[in-house]
Amino acid sequence: MKKGPIIAIEADTSDSEDRPVSAEGLEKALQGRRIRRLRQQLGVSQSEFAERYGIPVANLRQYEIGRTMPPPAVRAYLAVIEQEPETTAAAYRKSQAA
Questions:
Q1: Integer-rounded Cα radius of gyration of the chain
Q2: pLDDT tens, 34-48?
Q3: How crowded is residue 84: how many other Cβ atoms within 10 Å of its Cβ?
Q4: What pTM does this model have?
């Protein structure tokens, strides 16, 4: 008899975008949830977040669903966004104008 994956975290029923997480995908999923919650706290869509902070929307989608783990530099950038979202957005806009 074939067994399904071991579920480490059940889906958050209050979040329509959330899914259950297998033990293997736990670390990626936790990072994805953190990113999605940050984006939701800022009240922006994936496309708006991507444009505001210069993260490709395709990458953001992959991170949020836990398919891929952001590289260390992106995780550090997300931590800065979490601490200072407006200042970070302004700095990104300024860097694009140069």
A1: 15
A2: 999 999 999 999 999
A3: 12
A4: 0.75
